[in-house]
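hey so u asked for the seq, here:
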Amino acid sequence: MAARKQTKARSGPKPSAAKAPPPLAAKSGRARSKAQPAADFEALVQRLEATTARLEAELETARAKIAALESARIDAINRIDWVIDSLESLAHK
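ran it, structure tokens below
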């Protein structure tokens, strides 16, 4: 039997439209000047800081969505309880 590739279905909105930083540069076989590693390090630090800021923003957005969903769930539960109480009071009359 041929092996099938399994993929995870994604639901919901796509992650933020901000582009992910480029992957870390591969090490090359050629010699580099002494200034080059420092520049590479600074570029890496900047990319990591940008990634951190993007992820913190996404986390804050996710926390806000979770809070809204929890509030909606509580509202739904309260409405269901109210309907049950109303039906019970009508049944006992």
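DSSP finds one helix and no strands in the chain. The chain has a mean pLDDT of 80.
lmk if thats what u needed
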